[in-house]
Design brief:
By secondary structure, the protein is mainly alpha-helical. It has helices spanning about 5-15, 20-30, 40-50, 55-65, 65-70, 75-85, 90-105, 115-125, 130-155, 165-175, 180-195, 195-215, 225-240, 250-260, 265-275, 295-305, 310-320, 330-340, 345-355, 365-380, 380-390, 400-415, 420-425, 425-440, 440-445, 450-455, 480-490, 505-520, 530-535; strands at about 460, 475.
Length: about 550
């Protein structure tokens, strides 16, 4: 309860006396025996005294009223912080800059105070205020963004995310002074740039502090997503032998804490540690002790369900281990295919190998093998590319060049005035174009069942039912242009019977039509002895 002297001050303050308002503001600012400390009430009375041109009032506002309290009335209070800054208060200059620049950031056009606010922010940053250093780094980076975007547009390249030198120095100073946002920004830069030692130098003490805090509170409080990512990244770098030697128990304690917080990389690492193996299933050097496959499967399943294909691949390795009591080849294949479907190149290569080895059980397994090997080769797998060239070679020796020559002759005949023939034989023209695209022989071009042959990623060239001398083979669809052309040609044959009972007739009829259209004998030495016999049989 206020004493008699304080009651007199309150009465005089309410009566409008500047000295009493200043005195009452001080009492609420610092607290007294009769009045509690209350910054909002102190601001109310100090602001009323400042309106009466009380210099000490605006100095107290600038030195002691924080930004959070002033933001509610930024336009009304900014002049008092400006005056306090003019009187030499760096803290007041910082709050003044934040109030003015935050107003600008919300979309209000810069006013005459903008330049002064920028100078106040720079003074506070040089004076060592971490908040000023962080804000100055952000503003300089934002100011440099349009120029960086313009340079990127001129070079037709995506803009670089690297900070400018002007902002980087302030950013690092803010991080060194403990600003959490600045620390996170510096760590993210180091991680993206691959500066592992720099990342560990800053992140390892933070990770150890997080472990200590989690131990003290018994994990009753969840970690922030940024803290979880930091623990996971530090553990990965320590496992990769980067930076200083870890302390006893590290990085396992980091992995455990991050895995408990559902970090997928930590769950993968915990699963591999429990299984005492690497992702490829090989036992890791120095992995003493017996493997606990039950725990490993639990952690790896959790990681896989969060989108890590490596986890499913590692699970497939566990399920084919002879020492695993629940060994199951079917489960191993299921996990392997799931990893392959998620884009893991090693799993795609193995799926391709498995399908190719099983081609005698099912003739169409070579189509499946080509599918997986094509995906693995697209990710840079040399082994997949080598096997793919064996499974589906693009043949270029005669007679596989002949159809391309025939298509060229057909195009020449159209240019020479035989344009009326094109509408009469659209299917034959489409077959010749297909043969030129994929190096088909004359017999393959004329007899191929186009809709049945198209498997999306490849063509199955199989005309053995109509042309006994041929062999079944695959041709890959390798480019977007080939895919577009194949789709266009395929639409012509959608509702058409490509067999001898269809509108194109048997092989002899198709061959005769081709010769007539081109005005040439179009003889094929490899087919000449069997044409009549095959045509009659068809």
């Amino acid at each position: 309860m206020a004493n008699r002297e304080e009651l007199a001050i309150i009465r005089n303050a309410r009566a409008g006396q500047a000295a009493a308002q200043l005195a009452l503001g001080k009492l609420y600012l610092f607290g007294s025996a009769g009045l509690p400390q209350s910054l909002p009430t102190a601001l109310h009375w100090l602001e009323r005294a400042a309106r009466q041109d009380c210099q000490q009032a605006w100095q107290l506002i600038g030195d002691h009223i924080p930004l959070e309290l002033a933001q509610g009335s930024a336009q009304a209070l900014a002049p008092w912080y400006e005056r306090a800054y003019d009187d030499g208060s760096v803290h007041a200059g910082l709050v003044f800059a934040q109030l003015v620049l935050d107003t600008i950031d919300t979309g209000v056009a810069p006013g005459p105070q903008h330049g002064k606010a920028q100078r106040a922010l720079e003074d506070a940053a040089r004076a060592g205020f971490p908040a000023a250093q962080w804000l100055l780094a952000r503003r300089r980076e934002l100011a440099a963004a349009p120029a960086r975007q313009a340079r990127a547009d001129a070079a037709a390249a995506p803009p670089s995310g690297r900070p400018t030198a002007a902002s980087q120095g302030w950013l690092r100073r803010a991080a060194d002074n403990g600003v959490a946002e600045a620390q996170a920004a510096v760590l993210e830069q180091a991680w993206e740039a691959g500066h592992w030692d720099d990342y560990l130098a800053r992140a390892l003490p933070l990770a150890r502090a997080l472990v200590a805090a989690a131990s003290s509170r018994g994990q009753l409080q969840r970690l922030a997503p940024g803290d979880i990512a930091l623990l996971s990244r530090v553990a990965r770098l320590l496992d990769g032998r980067h930076g200083p030697a870890p302390a006893p128990g590290e990085p396992l304690c980091f992995w455990e804490l991050a895995a408990a917080e559902h970090d997928r990389h930590a769950q993968l690492a915990m699963g591999l540690r429990c299984a005492r193996m690497g992702i490829d299933g090989r036992r890791v050097a120095g992995g003493g002790g017996a493997a606990n496959f039950k725990k490993a499967i639990r952690w790896l399943t959790l990681a896989g369900e969060q989108g890590l294909p490596e986890a499913w691949y590692a699970l497939s390795r566990i399920y084919i281990k002879p020492e695993f009591s629940q060994r199951n080849v079917a489960d191993a294949q299921r996990h392997l295919e799931r990893a392959a479907e998620m884009g893991y190149a090693d799993a795609q290569l193995e799926c391709g190998n498995n399908a190719w080895r099983a081609r005698r059980e099912n003739e169409n397994n070579d189509v499946r093998a080509a599918y997986w090997l094509q995906k693995a080769a697209a990710q840079g797998s040399g082994a997949a590319a080598a096997l793919l060239s064996k499974i589906a070679p693009r043949l270029s020796a005669p007679p596989y060049l002949e159809a391309g020559n025939l298509f060229a002759s057909y195009q020449a005949s159209q240019r020479n005035g035989s344009r009326d023939a094109a509408p009469a034989h659209p299917l034959l023209a489409a077959r010749l174009e297909l043969a030129a695209l994929f190096n088909l022989s004359r017999a393959e071009a004329l007899l191929l069942d186009v809709p049945a042959a198209d498997q999306g990623h490849c063509l199955v060239i199989d005309i053995r039912a109509s042309y006994g001398r041929s062999k079944r083979r695959l041709v890959l669809v390798e480019t977007a242009q080939e895919r577009i052309a194949l789709d266009r040609i395929g639409r012509l044959f959608e509702q058409i019977d490509c067999g001898p009972s269809g509108p194109e007739g048997n092989y002899r009829q198709r061959l005769y039509r081709l010769r007539t259209l081109l005005g040439t004998s179009a003889k094929g030495d490899e087919e000449g002895h069997a044409e009549t016999e095959i045509g009659m049989a068809a």
